[in-house]
Amino acid sequence: MGVSKLRRVLQAYSWRNPEVGYCQGMNLIASTLLLVFPEEEDAFWVLVCVIEKLLPPEFFSGSLIDSRACPLVLLDYVEMHHLKIYTHLLDMGVDLPAICFSWFLSMYTDCLPVETLFRVWDLFFAEGLDALFRVGLAIIRMNEAELLACDSAPALYQYLEGMTGRMWQADKLMKVELDIKSLMAHDDLVRRRDAHVAMLQSYT
């Protein structure tokens, strides 16, 4: 029953917007919406709003340009505000954007506990994509000591892959997100995202 609903919502969206069609990550977002909205049509129209109003135009395009740029932007802010972590990851040869890519593409549906996820989505619906960057930096900030304690690349990758699933303290995450809000101005986020999009486009 649930799988059939999900298939119909995703198929309907691919008919509405054939240029985007179906992209990985959309199934996780749509299935989460179906947990909140029992009526398929309601879930469909919220999905439309997310893809066409709240996310950048190329977020779910075939090239995934905008979504691929997002973890690179996050890495910029890690370098600016958590240089020890940035340097530690660099020294260990750990590719943080490769880990964080799914955070953005799935809007955290594939990694956060559901209670925490819905708090993050509240922010997203109120403030748009900016909130997802702040949540990402907040997660890294909350795990700084543990990340720095990892003494090998495998240990770092293992910790990075699992740390979001342990983010049960939604109130604490929201407080840290609020504390760093002034560090990530909207205009600066847009400028950095546009710069990374241009860089990725130059590689194609």
Account of the protein in words:
The chain has helices at residues 2-16, 26-36, 40-54, 65-81, 83-92, 96-105, 114-127, 130-142, 144-149, 153-163, 170-179, 186-203. With 204 residues, the chain is mostly helical. It has two domains: 2-54, Helicase, Ruva Protein, domain 3 (Orthogonal Bundle), CATH 1.10.8.270; 65-203, Cyclin A, domain 1, CATH 1.10.472. Helix 1 crosses helix 2 (26-36). The N and C termini lie far apart (41 Å). The mean pLDDT is 94.
Radius of gyration using CA atoms only: 17 Å
- Tell the overall outline: globular
The CATH architecture category of the largest domain equals Orthogonal Bundle
Number of strands: 0
Helical content (DSSP H or I, runs of 4+):
over 70%
The CATH homologous superfamily of the largest domain: Ypt/Rab-GAP domain of gyp1p, domain 3
* CATH T-level fold name of the largest domain: Cyclin A, domain 1
Q: Could you say which structural class the secondary elements and strand pairing correspond to? A: mainly alpha
Contiguous low-pLDDT stretches (5 residues minimum) are none
Total domain units? 2
Write the layout of secondary structure elements.
Elements: H1 2-16, H2 26-36, H3 40-54, H4 65-81, H5 83-92, H6 96-105, H7 114-127, H8 130-142, H9 144-149, H10 153-163, H11 170-179, H12 186-203
Question: What's a quick, concise take on this entry?
Answer:
Helix content is 74%, strand content 0%.
List descriptors.
Helicase, Ruva Protein, domain 3; 2 domains; 12 helices; 74% helix
